[in-house]
Amino acid sequence: MKAVRFHEFGAPSVLTIEDVERPVPGAGEVRIRVAASGFNPADNGIRAGSLPIPVTLPHIPGYDVAGTVDALGDGVTGFAAGDAVIAFLPMTAEGAAAEFAIAPAEALVAAPTSIPLADAAALPSVGLTAWQALFDEGNLRSGQRILIVGAGGTVGGYAVELAKKAGAYVIATASPRSRATVTAAGADEVVDHTTTPLLDAVTEQVDVLLNLAPIEPAAFEALVALVRDGGIVVSTTAWMPAPSDEARGVRSTVVFVRSDAEQLAELASLVDSGDLHLPAARRVPFGELAAVHEQSAAGTLRGKVVVVPDAQ
Question: By the 8 A CB rule, do 145 and 166 touch?
Fold first, then answer.
């Protein structure tokens, strides 16, 4: 089968397209015929060796996958050949930028049926990050106020929609380029962070501050003043700690996304019910993945990208 691999850590040029043996599912595993794998910024960090996620070289990137069940390992029940599925694969294992991929059966869920299967590769880790940040870590409830910093990104769009569905009042930051998207997602207030200081724009404290943006630590620290006593600061920026205010009982936590089939199934159901909208993903073939990594490393990548085995 064809697969994208890298044999050493380094620049995007280390990515190559190779012929490798088709993997065989072990006990408790499923082989998937890949419709698409999702590209995420962490893929760039793993390839560069700058993220502390241990992978065995050579390595196939792409830990989000959508496809159809191709073969079952021993002990696997509940799935059959041809089933359309999605999964968030273990980040330390071989990925899905290949014609076939192996997934733990416990990570698989039925793919949404209302969108093309390849596009569903954009959902798993990004949707789970938003869900876990809001509800597992932030304990967001109906009637609460939340400030989402960096809502214009892929996680941000899901976070705005999920927070609104939960009955929260949502204040979101976005640039002029992404303002319309964030507004369409349901934000009650949208603050242009390029022109308006948040400390001036947010006049009533929030229960939850969710930061999705690579802001400076001092600027992040200042935003804690916008959180009410007893509230919480949640961040997905794993490379720096989230600030807190112990004197006022404001806690903080950093999200490290994990696979959760029950949550992923709920997200897929929300897509099919029309309560969660996947932004349009750009499909690229294997040969363009290195360029996507280059754009991500340079900070010029816009929108979600899914990688298809050919120009589907």
Answer: no
User: What does the CA dihedral 70, 118, 266, 190 come to, rounded to 10 degrees?
Assistant: 160
- State yes or no: pLDDT of 71 exceeds 90: yes
* pLDDT tens per residue, range 94-137: 999 999 999 999 999 999 999 999 999 999 999 999 999 999 99
User: At which residue do the structure tokens 């733990």 appear?
Assistant: 104
The Cα–Cα gap between 119 and 281 comes to: 6
> How many angstroms from the chain centroid is the CA of residue 198?
25
Place of tokens 């400076």: 216
Separation CA 247–CA 232 (nearest Å): 13
Report pLDDT digits (tens) over 198-220.
888 899 999 999 999 888 999 99
Closest by CA to 121, choosing from 39, 68, 66, is 66
> How far from the centroid of its chain's Cα atoms is residue 69's Cα?
23
Average pLDDT of the chain, as a whole number: 94
